[in-house]
Protein 1
Amino acid sequence: MLLRLGPTPYGLATTLLLLLALPQGAPTCPMLCTCYFSPPTVSCQANNFSSVPRVLPSNAQRLFLQNNLIGTLRAGMFGPSLVTLWLYSNNISSIQPGTFRHLPALEELDLGDNRNLRTLDPDTFRGLERLQSLHLYRCQLSSLPSTIFRSLYSLQYLYLQENNLLCLQDDLFVDLANLSHLFLHGNKIWQLSENVFRGLSGLDRLLLHQNRLHSIPNWAFHDLGKLTILYLFNNSLSSLSGDTLADLTSLEFLRLNNNPWACDCRAHSLWAWFQRTRVSTSDVVCASPAERKGRDMRYLNEAVFQGCPPVSHHPVQLDWGCRPEWENGATRSHSHPHPRPRPHPHPHPHPHPNGSSNHLYGLGGSPPADPSSFYRDVPANDIRSSKYDPPTEDDYWAGYGNEEGGQLKKGCPGSSCSSLDSGAIRIGFLLLPFSWLLMLWGLTWF
C-alpha cells in the first residue's frame, strides 16, 4: 500500500504526526548538519564547509564545526548561548577582532590544527571571562601578543603545543591564576623571559619539552609553588640552577633527559639540589667533560666538585629580554637586566578552585592529535603516584564528546542510540518547514 501525504486518512494522520513531532518554535537546523535538543547542539563536522553556516539555532550551546574548510572567522557568526565551540582541523587563517566578544557563556574553544593560522590579534579572546579550555595547538603561531590572554580569569587548560613559538615574554600569562595545565612542548622556544610565568600560582603541569631552550632564568619558576609536573627533556640545556628548581616546592615529576648537560662546576648547584630532593626524575646524562660523558649527574661523587666555587644563591646577571616580531624593533631597557619578580599586578578578582566540567582527558581533548601523545615519551616506570594515574587511549576516547549521559554520534541506528540521539533532528526528515508540508499535502489534490 502506497502511503501519501494528502487529504486521505493515512496522509492526514502522517502529516499531523510530523507536525506534532516538531517542538513549538523549533529552530532551523543547517543543511547537512545534525541537531540535538538536550543540550541544544549543532553538529556540522566533516562536511567540507568553506564558511560557518549562516543560520544557526540561536539557543545552541554546543557547536561542532571541526574537520571542514572554514578559512575566516568574523563577528556575528556565533550565537550568545554557546558553551562549547569546536573549530579544529579547518583552514582558518584569519580571526577578525570581535569574533568571540559576545559569547559570555563560552567555556571551551578549540582552534587547534589550523595550519594557516599564523597571527592573532591582541583582542582575539577579549570578553571570554568564563573560558576554561583554550586549544591553539598545531597552528603556525611564531609569536603571541603580550595581552592575548588578559582577563581570561577562568582559564584552566591552555594548549599551545606544536606551533613555531620562539620566545615567551614577561607577564604573558599574568591573569591566569586558575590555569592548571600549560602545554608548550613541540615549539621552537629558545628563550624564556624572567617573569614569563608570573601569576600562575595554580599551575599543576608545565610541559616545555622538545623546544630549543639553552638556559632558564633563575626566577622563572618563582610563582609555581603548586607545580607537580615539569618536562624539560629534548632541549639544549647544558646547565640549570638548583635555585631555579627550589621554588617548585610541590614538584613530583621532573624530566631532564636528552639535554647536553655539562657535568663540571656548572652542574654543582643542580647536583646539590638532587641530593636534597625526593622528586621523581629522569636520567640526567652528562655530555661533557669527556671523562664524565655518559654518567648520570645525579650519582656523581661530591669529590667531582672539589675546587668549584661555593654554590651561589644569587641570580646570574643576564639579559632575559624577549623581543617578539610585532614590537617593531622596540628595545628593552638594560639598566636592570635581572629584576626580581614583582607581586602579581592583577590579583584574581574571582578566585575559585579548578573544578571544570571539561576534563582534560574527557570533553576538551585535542583531536585529531594522538590522544596518548602526552605520555608516549614517558617510560612505563617514569610516573608512579597514587594521585596521578595516566589515562589510556581508551580512557581518553571513552569520554570525548560525552556530556550529561549522551554521547554525540552521527547516524546512530536503532535502539543503540544514546539519550542525546533520541532528540536529534536531521534535515530532510522531521525538520521540514511547515510550508513544505502544506505544499506536499496540496499536491495530492491534483
Protein 2
Amino acid sequence: MTMKKKISWRSFLPPICGGELPAKATKKVAAKQSSFTRISQLDLSNPNSLLSEDLSISLAGSNIHMFTLGEIKVMTQTFSTGSFIGEGGFGPVYKGFIDDKLRPGLKAQPVAVKLLDLDGTQGHREWLTEVIFLGQLRHPHLVKLIGYCCEDEHRVLVYEYMPRGSLENQLFRRFSVSLSWSTRMKIALGAAKGLAFLHGAEKPVIYRDFKASNILLDSDYNAKLSDFGLAKDGPDGDDTHVSTRVMGTEGYAAPEYVMTGHLTAMSDVYSFGVVLLELLTGRRSLDKTRPHREQNLVEYARPMLMDNRKLSRIMDMRLEGQYSETGARKAAALAYQCLSHRPKQRPTMNEVVKILEPLKDYQDMPIGTFVFEMPDSSPVSSNGHHRQNHGHRHSRSPNSPLTENGASNGNRRPTSSPLHPRSGGRRP
C-alpha cells in the first residue's frame, strides 16, 4: 500500500512520447524527484502543448514501462481477433502475453492491452489521466498498470490481466454460476478498500466513475478498481468540492453532482451504494426491460431496505436464500446510508470498510432439507398398470448454475458525456 512520488505536469510532451531517453535526462529527473508535485487536471486539456520533457522521464522510478508499438503487437499477435476480449468507451481490449525475453527484468505474464479508439468517446486526455494516476498510486485493490505506448497517434495501456473479468459480467451474465453471499461481500469490501485508499491519499482522489463494469476480479475474486480516465484530484485547502463538467454513468452518479456539477468524495460513496444494491438484488442500476417503476433500481429498492420483510423480497433470487440474514440487513442498512440524498449523511469509505469487514464471515444461513425423489418407473401391478411413486424434489443446490432473470449480457459500448449510458464490455 504505497504511493509513488508526485510528479509535475511540466514534464509531459505527448508529440514525442516515443523514443529512447538520453542518460543525462534520466539523471536530471532523478535529481529532481523530491520536488515533484502531482499534475493539475487543467493541464490535461492540451495534448499538443510543447512542454520540456518526455512522459517517460516524468515516470522515472515508477516501474511503469514505455513499450514500443512493435512490442505491443508482439504481445497481442498484432491485435488478432483471437486476442480480442471486449470493448469500452476507451476502445478495444485485447488479451496479450509478455514473454520474459521482451524486456529484461519484466517477468513473463498475461496482460490486458487497451487500445485507444481515435473515433471513440475518450481521447488523449483520459489516456493521460489514467497513466498519471496509476503511475503514481499502488494498492492491492487498484488494477496494476504495467506500461503504456505513446507512438505517433497510437495510445495504448498495458495492465495486469484479471481472469474473471468485471463484476458486471460475473453478476449479470446469463448462464453464469451465481456469486455466493460471501463472495459478494468480499468483492464489496475489496472495492470499498480501493475507494478508501483513494480518498485518504496525501492528495485525495475522487474516482468519479465507480460502477460494476469498472470493478475487475482476479482468480480469487479479489476486486480491483480500473479505468481512471475520469478521476479527479479532490478539493484543495478549505474548498468543499470540485466544480466540474458532469461526467460518469447514468444510474450510478450522485444526484447532487448531476444537478450542480459539485464533486466530492461523497459522490463516490453514493456510487458505491448503487453497486452494493446491485450485489444484494442481482439487478442492474438501470434496466429498461423491467416494469416502469422498477427500471431505476435506487428509486425502486431503497425504500425497502430498512424493512426486513420487504428486503427479503428484493434479495437476489439466484442466492436461493443462501445468505446471512443478519449480514443482509447490515449491508442493506449500509446501502441505505450511502444512497442518502444528503451527502453529509453518507458514511465515509473508511466507515464503510469497517461495517463490511465482518459481513462475509457471517454464518447464519438457512440449511435446506434434502428429499430423495424415487424414479418414475415402478413395478407393474397384477392388473397391468404401473404404480407411481410421487416423490418431492428439493430446490436446486445453491452451487448449481442458474440463469439470471431478465439479465442481458453483451459487450456494449458506452458513450461518455455528460452522463453516458451504462457501459458494458469486458475491461482489463
Protein 3
Amino acid sequence: MITTAVIAHHHRTIVLPPNRKSSHHSKIEEEEEEEEWICMVVFHVIKRERVDVAAVTTTELRRIRIRNRPRHPNIAHAVANSVLSVLALMSYAFLPIWTGIFKPLPRFIFSHFKFRNTCRVWCSGDRKNINRPENMEQVVADGAEVMVGDTELLQKKISYIRLDGPAKLQVIADFDATLTKYWVDGQRGHSSHGLLQQGNPEYDVKRQKLYEYYHPLEIDPTIPIYEKAKLMEEWWEKTHGLLIEGGLTYGAIKTSVANSRIAFRDGVIELFELLEKSNVPVLIFSAGLADIIEEVLRQKLHRSFKNVKIVSNRMVFDQNDHLLSFKGKTIHVLNKNEHAIDMAAPVHDQLGDVNGLADDPSSVKMRTNVLLLGDHIGDLGMSDGLNYKTRISVGFLNDNIETSRDSYQKSFDVVYMNDASMWGVVKLASHLCSM
C-alpha cells in the first residue's frame, strides 16, 4: 500500500512523500520497527519544534526510546513507511515548499491520534486499508434524533476548529426555544418576552395589540428587508415605551419569571460549565430583554457563568426598582447579530457583573471559529458582522418536523429534532475543545 503521511505540529503541516514497505524483514520485526520509527520522528517534532532531516540521522533516531507509542498501529505503520525514505532524501529547506504545494490536502481522513498531547498524525491513501473515521452522527448524537447534512464537510470543520484550539472558538446562541425547551409539561413554553406580565392589565393588552399588528409584518416575505427593519424598530420602541409608561418594576419581572412556563434544556448547565472551563465565551443573542433573561438564569439555573454575555435590550431602573429607560440602541429580530455586540450595554448591576466576559468586544471578534446554536434558519444571521474562518451551525427543529426537515438539513450542519436535549451539543463542544 502506498500512503502519504502528514505530521501536524501546531499550525505547521509537513507532508512526507510515499514509499513502499521493505520486504526483507519479517512481519513482526517490521511492525515493531515501524512503530518505533514513528515514535522517534514525533519526538523530534515535539523536541525541536521542527523536522531537520539533515540533523536527525538514522543512527541518532535509533538511540531514542520513548514510552508513548501510537494508539493506532495501522496508522503508525502507514506513516512509518513514508518516514523511512524521507529521512535520507529531504532537507529542512525543502519542507516548506512541499507544504505550500500540498496544504491543504483534500482527501484527509480526519481521525486524530495524539502523541504527548502535542502532535497529531493523520493518514490518507488507500482508504480500503485504513480504519474509517468515527461516524459524525455519533460525534454529535447523544440519544437524540439528529440529522447531519454533509458529514465530510462537518468532519473537516471539526478538525479545523480543533487544530486552532479553544482560544479561537466562541459560541453564539439564541435563547428562546434554543437554550430553553419548546415544550414544558406538555404545553408550549413561554418565551422570555412573552412571559412578562406588567402588573397592569391595561398595558398588557396594549402590548398584545402591538404584537397582533406587527407580527404579520415581521413574517411577510413581500416586504423589503430595509422597510421591515424600520417596522421592527418601530414595534420594539413602542413596546418599550409601554413598559415605561405602564410603570414596570423589577419586582414584576421576578414574579413573571417565577410564574412562567419556561425551562432550560437538559445539558445546558453542563455545556456552560464545559465552555467556562475551556475559557470559551458564550454570547446569548436575543431581541428580548436582557434583564428577564438574567432573571431566568438566576431562578432556573441558580448560578452565573463568567464566560456568558447577554446581547439584548437592557433596562435602567431607579432606586425603587421602577423602569426609567433602556440602554443603548434597540436590538430587534433583524439586527440580532455580532454587530449588536457594540450596542449591548454592560451586564445588569444586580448581577454584580458576574456574567461579564473577560474579553472585550474587539477580542471576542478575534475568535474566528464559531459554534452557532439556533432554532430558526434566520438565526444563522447571528454571526453576521464576524469575519469567521470556520462555523459549525446547530439547529433545533422543535415542531413541524416533516415540513421543515429538508430546509433545516440544507441550512444547518447539525439538526436536532423533536425538542431534543442539549447533550448532543455538549458532546460536540467537548470534542471541539479537546486537544
Protein 4
Amino acid sequence: MGESSASKPCLEADIWAKLVPAHSMYSVVDIRSNETVVYSEISCSSENKHEWCKITRSLNQSSAMIQNKSSSTILIDGATVQSEDIMLIQSGSEIIPGPDREGHLSYRFETIPTAERCEKRLKISIDIENAKCGICLNIWHDVISVAPCLHNFCNGCFSEWLRRSQERRATVLCPQCRAVVQFAGKNHFLREVVEDILQADTSLGRSKEDVAILDSHALIQSNLVISSGRKRKRPHLAVDEQTSGPDLSCPQCGTEYGGFRCNQDTVHIPCQVCGGMMPSRSNISVPQHCLGCNRAFCGAYWHSQGVARIDGHPLCTYDSFRPIMERSISSIPFTAHETNRYEQDITERSIRQLGRTLQDVISEWIGKFDNREIDRSRMPLNHADVITAATHICNDCYNKLVSFLLYWFRFSMPKYLLPRMHPREKIVGMDMHVGRSTTVRNMLGKEITFAVQPEGLIHRRRVVSASYQSG
C-alpha cells in the first residue's frame, strides 16, 4: 500500500504520474508534486510504513529520476539499485521496493499524458491567414515582429528583406505596410501559437529543406535597432572631431577597429548591460549573444576588437561576458538553493569540511557537466544541450549555472559527509524554511522532511526530529 508525501488535497489536474501496484488490492499512488517521497508497506505482511523512494520529475514529462531511500536495495526493471543511489525511470518501468520479487509489492511507473490531465488552458481562435508571413505567404517560422507597425514575418524572410533593403535604400520599409522599420525582434508568444497550430494541422508544416534554408538566412537573435542611412549635413570637421561626434552609433562607426568599420547599412544591437551599441556581425568567431538567455552583451566583442574605452560610447568590460572556463567564483550565489540561507550554509560548511574551496568544487562539476555526467533536463538556461565550458555566458547565467551545479553537489553528497549541526542551528534552519506561519511546537522522535527548490529543482533532506503545526 503506497502513500506519497504530497498528501494535501489537490485537483486531478495536479497528478502527473502514478505508481500502479501489480495487485488490485493495493491503492494506486498518485504523484502530484515535482518531487515526491513515497512511503509504502515494504512487504505484504508488514504493518508499518517505510520511506522507500523519492521521485523527481523530468522536464520532458515522460521520465523521472528515482532515488532509493530505503536501507536495502530495490529493483528497477530488474536492475539492482543501492540505498541512496539514483536511476532514470521511464513510463512503464517496474519498481520493486526490495532486493527480490518474493514477498515484495511490485509497482509500475506511469506518466499521465498532458491531454489526459484536466488542465485549464486558454483557447484562442485564430484565422490561419492571420498566422502567415507576408513575404513567403506560409505559416510563420521563427516568427519576428517589427516596430512600430508590429507586423510579423519569418525570421529568415525578413532577414533577407533587411539585407536587400539596406543595399538599395537609406531606410528599411515594412514589407506589408511600407512603414519605416526601426526595431525588429523575436516574438516568443506567437512562436508558441505557431507550435499549437502545427500540432493541430501537420499539413501546414514546411519541409526540412525549406526550414534549413530559412534558418540559414535568419540573422535576428535579439532586439535589433535598425538605423536610418540618412546622414545630416554638417560642415567638414577634422578627423578627430568626426570620429567623436554624437551622431556615431558605436566606436566603429567613425574609426576602424580590428579591421572593421561600420557603413551606413550596418545594423546595430544594444548591449543588455551598458545600453551601448555594437554592430551586428555574423561572420566573427566571438559571440554577441549569451547562449543561456539570448540577450546581447558587448564585452567580449569589444575585447576581441581591441577597444577598451572611448569617450562618448558606453562599453562593457570583458568580465561581463566571457567563457565559463575562464570564470572564477569565491562565494555561493545569493540565488543558490532558492535563496535558502540555511541550505547555503550547509553547502559552504560541507565544502570547508572536505578541505576544498568553492572554486575547486565548481571546477570539478563543470568538468562533469562538460563530460555530460549530469542530467541537464532541468537546467535553468536556454540551449542547455549545447552549452560547454568554452561557451560565453553572462554573469546572471553563470550564477544560475553555479546554483545548478551546487544542487548536484549537495544531492550527490553522502549523509556521513554532511557537517553536524548544533540543535539550535537546526531549529533556526527549519523555522527559516517552513515560513512564518509554521511554528515548531514539540520535540518528538519523528523525522520530518523539508523541501528546498534551487532554480526549479526540489531537494529534500531530513533535518531534525520534530513535530509542527500551522500557526
